[in-house]
Amino acid sequence: MYLEFYGLKEPPFSITPDPRFVYLSERHRDALAHLLYGIGQGGSGGFVQLTGEVGTGKTTLSRLLLEQLPDNTQVALILNPHLSPIELLETIGEELHLDLAGRRGSLKRLLDVLNAHLLKAYAEGQRVVLIIDEAQELSRLALEQVRLLTNLETPSQKLLQIVLLGQPELRDLLERPELRQLAQRVTARYHLTPLSYEETDIYLRHRLAVAGATRFPFSKLAVRRLHERAGGVPRVINVIADRALLAGFAHDQAQIGERLVERAAGEALSTRIRRYSPPPALLVGALAVALAALLLWLLPRHDLPPTAPTPAQPVTDVVPARSAAATAPQSLDQATLTERIRATGPSLLLAFNRMLALWSVRAEAIDAATASRCPAVLSSGVFCLRGNANLSKLARLGRPAIVHLRSEGVDAWALLLGVDALRVRLWLGGERIELDRLLLERLWNGEFISIWRAPEFVVLPLRQGDSGAAVDWLRTHVQADGDQGAIGPALFDAELTLAVKRTQARYGLLPDGVVGQETLLALIANDDSGPQLRTRLD
Fold it and tell me: Would you tell me how many other CB atoms lie within 10 Å of the CB of residue 528?
């Protein structure tokens, strides 16, 4: 109903997982990278676990994961976890297109045919992945059967990689003592959290731009209220934003303010989220139970052995880190560095792929010629810049960059990971090394390559007189840089041009007021998303 009123070609906030509308926040990209890492060499046959609240994007990530798996991967996807152990094995067999004739109902025969298939796939260079959605609903017996599947192995490799997707209850479930054997086999885990306010703003702009919007209909206060009421959960953001657009259309308001958002949230959430108020009698009973438990806890417990305190678990757990000795960067002098460069050889593609991995960008389509050419738009929402700078300028931009080194007649490309007043940290030929800052400046001619992410609707250059979603996004970034601006759809006017020039001057760029590649890189320098240069190398 409101599409024509807001100049939209299609609904921007449908809750169906349309890949065209997918916006990956930094946490979503990290989660996807963890899944791909766990399924790849890093998993070593253990479990990969992804948890998150309802509506945070787990299903969307699972679909993206399926799209990005290598061609030599077979996938069994379990969407209904309410299965007995035998039903679970039968479903896995059906997903892998196994011949189950005469084997249904028998746990041993099902395991035999599955093991035979896994051995055949291994011999043919195929990887087999089992993905279980809503895994918190698995019964204890089904979970135990899933654990036993990891025992299908050769002397050197597990034959089945298992991915568990679920709500936060899955983490609680795996902490139970009876499931400790399964929990110990989780080699990569990630908990997906809601969007921040800034990410909510970009999320709204991204979806509206994909739907064909030429202006942003939400005021800044409306975005903030929408974020607060939705709690940063993408699905709830969609519901409230859709209802707010409908309310704006009904009231003939092209600009949606916080009051309309509040009204829309009240209508959208009134039947979705209700606070439970227990009867007074239940409150009294609960209080009595709590007091009794407290008294029991305070009594001396001489019959119980002392237990070590359990350290608090971080929100994000990855594969256990290697020892400090294995990961500490090597400190090299020029002679040693020259030998390392000579041994590494031409290394641009290696360094480029490493930088792509830091940004969670797939590297299958990148060859040496593409890396050397560094096209301005590497892929959707991924930008590339090849230019010249000094070390201070790269430090201000704050992002990893590939630098071209030359020592005693040999060349190499290294990835700059950190820089402080005295030293720099590089990634070269698969290892992290450290050098004196002055040594790098002697060996580096100033040439660098950098990639970064920005919304795919940003089309460069942007200059005075432009408008649309890209200019709306631009204004939010110069506002974050100190310019408050006005509320409402943005026009690249004289005031915004001055703000861009101030940003350019601060980062050592030509202050011409035109947003090109270098200026776009500078604008995302202060974003929390994406990899950052280390500024302390101690």
Answer: 9
HEC secondary structure over 306-331 = CCCCCCCCCCCECCCCCCHHHHCCEE
From the DSSP assignment, how many helices (H) and strands (E) are in the chain?
21, 13
Cα separation of 260 and 257, whole Å?
A: 6
Secondary element (H or E) of residue 188: strand 186-192
- Strands 127-132, 160-166: parallel, antiparallel or unpaired by DSSP? parallel
How many angstroms separate the CA atoms of 245 and 33, rounded?
A: 34
Q: Go through the domains of the chain in sequence order and give each one's CATH number.
A: 26-192 (3.40.50.300), 197-269 (1.10.8), 329-453 (3.90.70.10), 469-515 (no CATH)
Query: What length is written for the chain?
Result: 538
Compute the distance between CA of residue 138 and CA of residue 286 in angstroms, rounded to an integer: 30
Report, as an integer, the average pLDDT of 352-363. Answer: 86
Q: What is the C-alpha to C-alpha distance for residues 399 and 524, in angstroms, rounded to an integer?
A: 9
With residue 478 as reference, give the H or E element that holds it. helix 469-480
- 248-251 contacts at long range (C-beta below 8 A, 24 or more positions apart): 248/2, 248/5, 248/6, 248/217, 249/1, 249/2, 249/5, 249/6
**Amino acid of residue 97:** H
What span, in angstroms and rounded, lies between the C-alpha atoms of 199 and 26?
A: 9
Asked if 43 contacts 35 with a C-beta cutoff of 8 angstroms, the reply is no
On average, the pLDDT of the chain sits at 81
CB 74 within 8 A of CB 96: yes
Percent of the chain with pLDDT over 90: 26
**Residues in Cβ contact with 55 at an 8 Å cutoff, skipping those fewer than 6 apart:** 233, 234, 235, 236
pLDDT of residue 222: 93
Torsion of CA 456, 461, 462, 466, to 10 degrees: -100
Pairwise CA distance, residues 497 & 478, whole Å = 10
E strands within 381-483? 382-388, 401-407, 410-419, 423-428, 431-436, 444-453
Q: What does the radius of gyration of the chain's CA atoms come to, in whole angstroms?
A: 27
AA letter at 138: L
Contact call for residues 512 and 463 (beta carbons, < 8 A) = no
Judged against a pLDDT cut of 90, whether residue 153 lies above it is answered with no
Name the DSSP class of 40.
Answer: T
